[in-house]
Automatic annotation (TrEMBL):
SUPFAM superfamilies: P-loop containing nucleoside triphosphate hydrolases. Gene3D superfamilies: P-loop containing nucleotide triphosphate hydrolases (3.40.50.300). Belongs to the ABC transporter superfamily. Residues 42-270 form the ABC transporter domain. This is Bacitracin ABC transporter ATP-binding protein. Residues 1-18 have a biased composition (Polar residues). It comes from the Bacteria. Keywords: ATP-binding, Nucleotide-binding, Transport. Residues 1-36 are annotated as: Disordered. It comes from Paenibacillus solani. GO terms for molecular function: ATP binding; ATP hydrolysis activity.
Length: 344
């Protein structure tokens, strides 16, 4: 936890190197490692949190790999913050387990938590001290953090010009970046952030997004982020985990198509809609939908049939001004997954 005397919820834990170790043989394990991704850093395994007779989180399971940014999404009351608090050990889980680099949060807490850096809600610092002195204060409480490492993370989050200014002069975005710098000091394997863009203006949100993507790429750190700004999650994350009423609804890579997903939908802008429609009626495996606007037709077809479509329209002397795929936004997909519940 941070060195602030207040009851803050910033979690920063020192790091040790480690591998996924098989519990029986003691050998390095490749359990649930995706060959297309880095090794699994965090495994949430059938985690349940029961309060009274209600399961706030219900048998939730998902993995996070090194170097990827994963968004945790869900409607109000879905259990996102409860899940994050269980992952970092701030509240006890009723059933299941969380493993960080193979170490159990329940039975091997000290080793597991050393691989986590996090900001739960808002980071707190001594306002009368500079950003640098705040980081030095944390350094004194953590083994293995050097001055060189402090300057590395300061550069990584873009605070070089402000690090010696008093924190009271920092904007909210600068405080958030200082919080991330503090969470990164001990070289964690995963960074966990609950609403990191909360209260930021559009410029600050974009800045935060860019720095998180840079951290994932340059440091190879896995990042789990909870946010209600779905447009930002779509730009930031490589994958989303959607929960509702504490249960997993879906896991989906951003921009990836599922096996059962319907044919791509494309919008074609032409100079002669009537001739284009007449031409398309003679083509196979193409479904015409209603016109979106004047001069435009909307079609469903296989990607490999698009060149034949264009060739047929050209042969019919139809001028093509634009062909673009119509994709559902993350917000639209979210509403489908959760049945139209309010986003949070």
């Amino acid at each position: 936890m941070s060195g602030n005397d207040s009851n803050e919820l910033t979690t920063n834990i020192e790091n040790t190197s480690g591998e996924l170790i098989d519990e029986i043989s003691g050998s390095v394990s490749t359990k649930r490692k995706d060959p297309k991704k880095g090794p699994v850093v965090l495994s949430v395994e059938q985690v349940t949190k029961t309060i009274g007779k209600k399961n706030i989180v219900d048998s939730l399971s998902f993995d996070i790999h090194s170097g990827e940014i994963v968004g945790l999404l869900g409607p109000n009351g879905a259990g996102k913050t409860t899940t994050i608090r269980m992952i970092v050990g701030l509240i006890e889980m009723s059933h299941g387990d969380v493993r960080v680099k193979g170490h159990s949060i329940k039975s091997d807490f000290v080793q597991a938590i050393r691989h986590i850096g996090g900001i739960i809600e808002n980071p707190e610092f001594y306002p009368y001290m500079s950003g640098y002195d705040n980081l030095r204060q944390y350094q004194r409480m953590t083994d293995g953090v050097t001055i060189t490492r402090i300057m590395e993370v300061v550069k990584l989050v873009g605070l070089q010009d402000a690090i010696h200014k008093k924190v009271r002069a920092y904007s909210l975005g600068m405080r958030q970046r200082l919080g991330i710098a503090q969470a990164l000091l001990h070289n964690p394997s995963i960074l966990i952030l609950d609403e990191p863009t909360n209260g930021l203006d559009p410029a600050g949100i974009r800045e935060m997004r860019d720095y998180l993507k840079q951290i994932a790429i340059n440091e190879g750190i896995a990042i789990l982020v909870s946010s209600h700004l779905l447009s930002e999650m779509e730009l930031m994350c490589s994958r989303v985990v959607v929960i509702q009423e504490g249960k997993l609804v879906t896991e989906r890579s951003i921009g990836a198509k599922t096996v059962n997903e319907e044919l791509p939908t494309v919008r074609v802008r032409v100079n002669d809609v009537a001739m284009a429609e007449q031409t398309i009626r003679h083509l196979q495996n193409i479904t015409m939908q209603s016109k979106a606007e004047e001069g435009t037709i909307i079609l469903q077809l296989r990607e490999e049939d698009i060149p034949a479509l264009i060739q047929s329209l050209c042969d019919a002397r139809v001028r093509i001004y634009r062909v673009e795929e119509i994709k559902s936004s993350l917000e639209e997909e979210f509403l489908k997954w959760t049945g139209g519940n309010r986003i949070a």
